[in-house]
Input
Amino acid sequence: MHPLLHTKQNSACEDLMIALEQCHAKGFLWKSIGMCNDPKDQLAACLRAERYKTQSSNRNNVADKKSKIREKKREIDENS
Output
C-alpha cells in the first residue's frame, strides 16, 4: 500500500489495507482473475468515508474562522 495511506487519519482502514496487501502478495494470477476486487472495493469505501469525515471537519473549521473574521471586521468598521 502507498505509504501516505498509512496515516493516523486512515487508521480505521488499516485492517483492510493489510488484507489487500496480503491478497496482492498471493501473486499476479490471483489478482488478474479478480480475487482481490472485494478487498479493494472495501478499502476504497473505507477511505472515501474517512476522507468525507476530514472534509466535513475542515468545512466546519473554515466556517468558524470566517465567522470570526467577519466579527472582527464588524468591530473594526463600528470603531472607525
Summary: Residues 3-79 form one domain. The longest helix spans residues 37-79. Residues 33 and 75 are 65 Å apart (CA to CA). The chain has one domain: 3-79.
